[in-house]
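Subject: sequence -> structure tokens, single chain

Hey, anyone have a minute? Need the predicted structure for the following. Not urgent.
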Amino acid sequence: MGEQVTNIGIVGTGVISGTYLDHLGKLPGVDVVAVADLDRSRAEAIADQHEGIRALTPDELYGADDVEIVLNLTIPAAHAPVHQAAMEAGKHVYGEKPLAVDRTAAEPLLKYAAANNLRVGCAPDTVLGTGTQTARAVIDRGDIGVPHAAFAAFTTPGHELWHPAPEFYYQPGGGPVLDMGPYYVTSLVTLLGPVRRVTARAGQSKQERKIHSGPREGTTFPVEVPTHVTGVLEHESGALTTVLMSFDVWAARLPRIEVHGTEGSLSVPDPNGFDGTVEIATAAQREWTEVPVAGGYAGAGRGVGVADMARALRRGEPHRADGALAYHVLDVLESLLDAAVQDQPVDVASTVERPAAVPLGASPETA
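Reply:
Had a minute. Here:
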């Protein structure tokens, strides 16, 4: 007999919702049954395009008896209040990153969930794909010896060049650190373990930005957060990672992630993607060589973390993209910003276990 299906309701109908709907519709074990938005017409437009999905208000969705997990795809400032409202209605929650705009907003969510036997999950789930998971398998096998250093870089000239409403990227909860940092730090924690201390410097090249697309093209808006941050993460293992996250770079030839060990080096693909080529160079073989896929959900897309959580919920097992990992990542990222402001190293208060490795498989139901 096949496994039960876990029903999901989505709150927030922005650009990313379509991607989640497309991928979740292909995964066994999960079924999206409702969508909600403060603008009900937007939810109705999506429901009209997907058979079996109904449009609701957020409050109606929280109270729906057939919804088990609320998938929160709202803007960062709404992540915590939507999570809290859903949990108060007895729902498990999974949301886009970051978990909340800051630790103060995130910590009560985890405490409430623990006290009420509810689960919290959080993107990014890209680390469950074959890219990061193959790199992890290589490290765990000892192929590069003991990892002692890493480098991670994300650069772009800014989301206002393509997004029709980019203001939230430049408000609290946004910026390169909290927007893209979760992909990189989640991957680094998956590969090298938790972080205990950080140092950083930060800057801002422009005080305002101009929208370049959509009906508001030409409109300017203020920048409220640092847009160029560089720093060092000291992992509990002793490994040191140099990080660069910027909305102020027009072009770069920097690696996404590299990990260096006592016996070799590893090139890790873009953590904002699920797959990609992993390459290795060792003391014995100095040329970069492609590594065969060795782990992760093959062909994965946005939503595989929700499916992983749903399966774990049904089986009474831990899920991988969980709230504790998301909180530690948020703690690391906020600590980077704190270190830049304070001009001194900052200890990271939280820690976390590395989530279980993902065996190679087509989906959470088959891996």
